[in-house]
Design brief:
Elements (H helix, E strand, L loop, with lengths): L2 H7 L1 H15 L4 H11 L6 H12 L6 H24 L3 E2 L2 E2 L1 H5 L1 H22 L2 H24 L7 H26 L4 H25 L5 H4 L5 H4 L5 H9 L2 H13 L5 H11 L1 H19 L7 H15 L3
Antiparallel strand pairs: 1-2
Helix pairs in contact: 1-17, 2-5, 3-7, 4-5, 4-9, 4-17, 5-7, 5-8, 5-9, 7-8, 8-9, 9-10, 10-16, 10-17, 13-14, 13-15, 13-16, 14-15, 16-17
Family: Belongs to the FPP/GGPP synthase family.
GO molecular function: all-trans-octaprenyl-diphosphate synthase activity; metal ion binding
Function: Supplies octaprenyl diphosphate, the precursor for the side chain of the isoprenoid quinones ubiquinone and menaquinone.
């Protein structure tokens, strides 16, 4: 199933999610309206709200509460992007200037805070302590993941396990929450709720690992951000970690210095080391293994087009070029 076909299954619901987000973004503070609308209208894959909708439908949900839940998930994600771009001093995202590049770091951080708090207001409206607990815990774990990533920056001795811990906390946790709450909303038993959450965790991990690959393979026009951004920021992602582990002493030294110093002065040498060690192929293999685990988690669900769509999304995650 192609991504366009998957989106078509819940096209009306996705439009409702976008409308709901724009409505709840409104504020008497003009800057919040300007910056919030800019970042939300900037496109993006919307995979997290898409998975929330599909999860609820695959579990047999028939109401409209999944619209608000998907909107909450997207607002939390958008808030993390605003804060990420400030921390990373990013200037380009989705082929557009970042919000902090236009309005400044202070405004980007504060509007990110507004998105978080608005999301929590929307959680209260749902009147479900269990859903609030899942989303609150996920938001807290994401913040921990951001700090873990900060600690790993410029540290060439970061292990594969330490990096996977970052991925699980910073990226995959919101995928997990998005799919788990779909099962909660549908009133599914605990084993199905856990399975849907595990699906999201594995799918989100696969998604991030392919992001790591694309940082060294895709062009800026395709990715919507600058190639080599992770290296420029001194982030030891899995391709670098593997290349250091498998490379010759010269490769190891080049990558070590590149991570410690940040910047792209030695990008060509780093790319050569990544190529010679098969680091991108290794990372893709790990991503595909995560995608397969995600698919297996769906066995608890009855057959439906929505279950098929969730399975297909794992392939989209690992086969995408942007």
């Amino acid at each position: 199933m192609e991504l366009s076909e998957i989106r078509l299954l819940v096209a009306d619901e996705m439009q409702a999610v976008n409308d709901h987000i724009l409505a709840r973004l409104r504020s008497e503070v003009v800057l919040i309206n300007q910056l919030g609308s800019y970042i939300v209208s900037g496109g993006g894959k919307r995979l997290r709200p898409l998975m929330a909708l599909l999860s609820a439908k695959a579990c047999g949900y028939r109401g409209d509460g999944h619209i608000g839940l998907a909107a909450i998930v997207e607002l939390i994600h958008t808030a993390t992007l605003l804060h990420d771009d400030v921390v990373d001093d990013s200037k380009l995202r989705r082929n557009r200037e970042t919000a902090n590049a236009i309005w400044g770091n202070e405004a980007a951080v504060l509007v990110g805070d507004f998105l978080y708090t608005r999301a929590f207001e929307m959680m209260v409206d749902l009147d479900s302590m269990h859903i609030m607990q899942i989303l609150a815990s996920a938001t807290n774990t994401i913040a921990e993941g951001e700090v873990l990533q900060l600690l790993n920056c410029n540290d060439p001795d970061t292990s594969e396990q330490r990096y996977m811990d970052v991925i699980h906390s910073k990226t995959a946790k919101l995928f997990e929450a998005a799919t788990q709450i779909g099962a909660v909303l549908a009133g599914r038993p605990a084993d199905q709720e856990a399975a849907l959450g595990a699906y999201g965790m594995h799918a989100g991990t696969a998604f991030q690992l392919i992001d790591d690959v694309l940082d060294y393979r895709a062009s800026a026009d395709v990715m919507g951000k600058n190639v080599g951004d992770d290296l420029a920021e001194g982030k030891p992602t899995l391709p670098l970690i593997y290349a250091m582990r498998q490379g010759c002493k010269r490769d190891q030294q080049v990558i070590r210095e590149a991570i410690e110093q940040g910047g792209l002065e030695r990008i060509e040498e780093v790319l050569a080391a990544i190529e010679s060690t098969g680091a991108l192929a290794y990372t893709e293999t790990v991503a595909r293994a995560e995608a397969e685990k995600a698919c297996r988690c769906l066995a608890v669900l009855p057959e439906s087009p929505y279950k098929d769509a969730l399975a297909s999304l794992t392939l989209v995650a690992v086969e995408r070029e942007a």
